[in-house]
Amino acid sequence: MAITRDKKNTLVAEITEALQDSKMTVFAQYQGLSVADIQELRRSAREAGVTIRVVKNRLVRVALASIDTYKDTDTSPLVGQLIYATSTDDEVAPAQVLHAFAKTHPALQFAGAFSGEGALLSASEVTALAGLPSKNQLIGEVIAQLLSPVHDVTNALSGNLHALLDGVEAKATS
């Protein structure tokens, strides 16, 4: 059954809004995945704050053409059955979610991505992005680095204090 023009216009408006708000839009070929697999992917993506959509490429092209940021972006990689992952919070989260899912479902293959600045990224660049730590992991590492000198000083002082107490105890027992 064909989609009515009103429904297509509504879809294009939704896609346009999602692309404008997204920091990164990753698209991947999903041919060979079952409906249950796609539902599993959507569940894991939702937990990470990523939205998964299956939309006709033609509608995505129309939406991209209506956004100034993406107006001149090459849309030639938008071929075949593609799934689109977007995130408004984290640039690498869509790539990480799809990459983690692709480890157990090899039918999912990166096709590329659109950055929030309108640049087209290749599949290899998206794979490299997927290997980066998440925003929360980076924040945790920075905090750990900042607290490291404090822990070192505390450990050094407590070590000297323990040695002093051990010496006093040995003197008292002898």
Give the helices and strands, then pairings:
Elements: H1 5-21, E1 24-29, H2 35-47, E2 51-54, H3 57-65, E3 82-87, H4 93-104, E4 109-115, E5 120-121, H5 123-130, H6 135-173
Antiparallel strand pairs: 1-3, 1-4, 2-3, 4-5
Helix pairs in contact: 1-3, 4-5
CATH superfamily of the largest domain: Ribosomal protein L10, N-terminal RNA-binding domain
Number of helical stretches of at least 4 residues = 6
Distance between the termini: 95 Å
The overall pLDDT average reads: 86
Percent range for helical residues?
55-70%
Low-confidence stretches: none
Counting structural domains, the number is 2
CATH topology of the largest domain: Alpha-Beta Plaits
Share of residues in strands: 5-15%
What's the β-strand tally? 5
Give the biggest beta sheet. Answer: 5 strands, antiparallel
Element order, helices and strands?
HEHEHEHEEHH
Q: Main sheet: which strands, in order across?
A: 2-3-1-4-5
Based on helices, strands and strand pairing, what is the structural class? alpha+beta
Radius of gyration: 25 Å
What does this entry show, briefly?
With about 170 residues, the chain is α+β, with helices and mostly antiparallel strands. It has helices at about 5-20, 35-45, 55-65, 95-105, 125-130, 135-174, and strands spanning about 25-30, 50-55, 80-85, 110-115, 120.
Describe the protein's architecture and organization.
The protein is α+β, with helices and mostly antiparallel strands and 174 residues long. The chain folds into two domains: 5-132, Ribosomal protein L10, N-terminal RNA-binding domain (Alpha-Beta Plaits, 2-Layer Sandwich); 133-174. It has helices at residues 5-21, 35-47, 57-65, 93-104, 123-130, 135-173; strands at residues 24-29, 51-54, 82-87, 109-115, 120-121. Strands 2-3-1-4-5 form a five-stranded antiparallel beta sheet, with helices on both faces. Strand 4 (109-115) and strand 5 (120-121) form a beta hairpin. Helix 1 crosses helix 3 and helix 4 (93-104) packs across helix 5 (123-130). The longest helix has 39 residues, at 135-173. The N and C termini lie far apart (95 Å). The model has no long low-confidence stretch (mean pLDDT 86).
